[in-house]
């Protein structure tokens, strides 16, 4: 089963930046890493995949649905965190999660249990009654991740999810994502830190200049060297075309 499928997907902004002719699929039960340097197009691609941006070309399907036309159907099926965690600053961590659970279709009778489980999973229980605006940057990130994961979505899209996390938080995140992939979720995670995702990824896709330029085997030797060789070769090829 395919969780996410993009075909010839593209959107170009003024000046030529954007993403171009993306063909990509993230299968159920797979943890798929999207790797690229800062500015490679990771966040833009994820916004297109989720329907946050309208594509100018190509198509996207999430669990068989067009994300820009099936918001109600996809709400319970998708969990995401793009760039910055969003939370109501005057609400506690627990209240934010309870609201998020309801918005994602968790039945009212199960909200309290759902929230308690994810607070424990990401070690947030001790901060559960702290207002979100008073949380540290790392704990706000944990709160955003908890909101994205708590309803057990079948498709998970996380943009640089380890940003601001301490080492303990990174470990908890890895374990949470591996569990969900093993339970059948399609998981897409972006990063510019290759070593972070190589430990858990089933598939690594490399993006550069808004284009998919290749893939890497997560457990291959000299992975970082192979990544930079791909990127540098693509940069040279584009420079030659431009010249």
UniProtKB/TrEMBL annotation:
Key words of the record: ATP-binding, Nucleotide-binding, Transport
Pfam families per record: ABC_tran
Hydrolase listed as a keyword: no
InterPro entries from the UniProt entry: AAA+_ATPase, ABC_transporter-like_ATP-bd, ABC_transporter-like_CS, P-loop_NTPase
Superkingdom, taxonomy of origin: Bacteria
SMART domains: AAA (SM00382)
Keyword presence, Ribosomal protein: no
Domain ABC transporter: 4-234
Gene3D superfamilies: P-loop containing nucleotide triphosphate hydrolases (3.40.50.300)
Family: Belongs to the ABC transporter superfamily.
Protein name from the UniProt record: ABC transporter domain-containing protein
